[in-house]
Structures are given as C-alpha cells and as structure tokens.
Amino acid sequence: MRQASKAFFSEEKKQKTFDFAVARSRTNTRQGAKFFWFFLSKKNRLLALLFLSAAAPITISPEQQRTIGLQTAQATQRQITEPVHVPGTVGFDEGHVSILRPLAPGRIRRLLAQPGDSVRPGQMLAELDVPSLVTAQDDLAGARASLREAQAGVAVAADAWRRGVLLARDGSLARAEAERRRLLLTQAQAQVQAARARASALQLGVSRMGPVAAPGTASLASPIAGVVVSVGVTPGESVDSATVALTVADLSVVLVTAQVPEAGAAMVAVGDPAQVRLVSGGDRVWTGRVVTLGAMLDPHSRTLPARIVLANADGALRAGMFADVTLTSDRQRRGTVIPAEAVQSIDDRHVAFVRVSEAAFQPRDLELGVERPDWVEVRSGLKPGDTVATKGSFALKSVLQQNLLGGN
Fold it and tell me: For a designed S-S bond to 258, which of 23, 111, 270, 306 qualifies (C-beta 3.0 to 4.6 A apart)?
C-alpha cells in the first residue's frame, strides 16, 4: 500500500493536478502555487510543468529575446552515429616491418647499425663470415668458365655448319656430313643453355647471402627505409638461418590496436572512422579507419582488438605508446536531431522549447536516443522541421518554472 501511494499519478490525479495547475496559473496566486509545488513529488512536478505548458505556451517578446540572446535552430534528419571510446596501443604495421636473418650458417664479423639508427634501402647493417660462401663462389666461378667454354664451342660449331652448307651446295661435301654438323651445333647450343642456367642458379644463391664485401664474407642489408628497432646478435656470435639478427621498421605508417569491450563489440565494424589521441597529452588528433577486427575476444580482458592504420610521416607516434581511441559507429539508421544546447533538464527529464509563434515557445517532453557533444537524437517529442530554442533556452526553462509558481 505504501508503494502504491508513492506511485506515479493515476489518471484521476493527473486530471486533478492539471485543473489545479491551470487554476493557479490563471489566478496568479503565488502562495497557493508554492504550496502546490512543494507538495508534489519529483516526478509529479515535471508532470505539472508539462500540463501547464500544454495549457499556455511561454510568451516572450522579440525585445526580450534579443536581451537574452535567444537563438533557434531546426530539427533535422541525419545518419545516426554513436561514439565508442576505448583504449588503444600504438604498434608496428606488420606490412612495414623487415626481419633480417642470415641465409647460411656463419659468424657475425661486425655490426654496422644500432637500435634507433635510420637506414635506407640497401644499406649494409652487419657483416658475417660464411664458410659455405667460399664454396658457392668457387662453384660460381667454375660455372661461368663452363659457360664461356660452351659459348666458344657454339661459335666453332656454327662456323663449321655454315661452311658445310656451302660445300654441300656445290657437291664438295656430302649432305650427310652437313646434317651432322647441324646436329653438333644444336648440341653446343644446348650445352650453353645448361651452363647458363647453372651459373644463374649459383649466382642467385650467392646474391641471396647478401652483398659480398670480400671472399667468404657476406652482408645483411636493409630492404626498406626505416629505423632499426632491435639487434639480436653480437660480434663473434655464431648464427644460422633461424637467427633474428636485426629488425627494421618503417615508422611512416603505424598500427593502433584498440581494445573494444565485449558489450560494444557488436557496434564496431570494419571501415568505421577512428580518432586517436595520445594518453600522454596534447591536442593532436590522428584520423583513420578500422581495417580489421579480431576473430575472437581476449580471454583475459574480454575485449575485441580493432586495428587502425595511421599515417605517421613525422614519426610522432612510437610503438608502445598508449592512446585514447574514439570509434564512430554507424547505427545504420536515420533519425531526428537537434543541437545539444537546445535540450534542458527538469527533474531528470529532457525538455525542448518549440517556437509556435514569433513570441511564443511551447515546452515539449523529449525521449532522447544517441547523445553527441554537438547534437542529440530525439526519438519522440519533435519532428523534422520544428524550430527549437538553442542559445538562451535556459531562460525559457526559468520562465516555465516561474509560471507554475505564479510568477510573471
């Protein structure tokens, strides 16, 4: 029974409250209205305000509007988007990172770069002694000699075949001998092709070991322009093809991984715009878009990784920095919106003042949807094209409250 007595107005009480509020506003009896106002519960105060507003719009002359700086705007329709604020971490973009490994077992001779050094494409970063390189270089030299020999054999066979053709024409040489010479030329040409293929294969194997500084000495060179991120070897250390010697990253493009909570994962999609600010401070904002979403949640943090690629030409973003990420989620619908400053709060409810004439504004109870810093979505209470008070609407709210108390 006690809870029932505290319940919101019944229909009968609503009508009585409406009649009483209108009577008080018309007679302009301040004392009685004050008693009525403080008698009401918090929710019922708002209802009384709305009943009163339905009976009499707020009248404010054009001169008074200019005095308080009253401004208006129209309710419009737009695509509804909602911001999702999540933490993020700056990291390297895997597509702009190069890991250098020796292609053959050897020993580090000397390092030519340290972490933090800027490097250019093709710059040598380390030298190493590679015993197998000596053998490969000898084999390459032998293959090149065989190629030259085969090419010389082709020249001799071609000359013999041409002379045989001329002698066979005047009958000085049997046609069978001329044909044999042609076959010898074909065999010599095949030997040249085989020798060239072997020399090319050996040359590829030697070149893959890096630029050769001296016999048996190979180099590790950076394939990209960037910064040396890490060095995993020391001079004199034995290495093989599984050893990560150096890592080079191109910082002109970085990757920000935003951690989206499980509750908001359904709101984020690939292609959503993103704004990134560093936690360390500053007003700078980097913009990008979500390029990929993780296939599964992190089992510990219960978050979904959203990856954002950002341009970083000046290198201001460094791997490991913490960031505040704002993802703009497209809700896939259009809605009615008004400027945020047009909404006033009265006892936990939202109200806007709609212009009904040059000097009158009607309060409207609003049901809000998505709220942004500059605009809010109105799900009920307004329609597109309604003109609402924006700047100065707080003064209209004060007038509304004074009217209920019997003020002027």
Answer: 306
Rounded Cα gap, residues 336 and 379, in angstroms: 7
Phi and psi (nearest 5°) for 196? -70, -40
**Strand boundaries in 121-231, DSSP class E:** 124-129, 217-221, 226-231
In the DSSP assignment, the letter for residue 57 is P
Locate tokens 């971490």: which residue?
89
Contact 58, 361 (CB under 8 A): yes
What is the Cα–Cα distance from 336 to 352, expressed in whole angstroms? 13
Q: What are 229-285's pLDDT values in tens digits?
A: 999 999 999 999 899 999 999 999 999 999 999 988 888 889 999 999 999 988 899
pLDDT of residue 27: 44
DSSP codes of every residue in 179-194: HHHHHHHHHHHHHHHH
- The model's pTM: 0.59
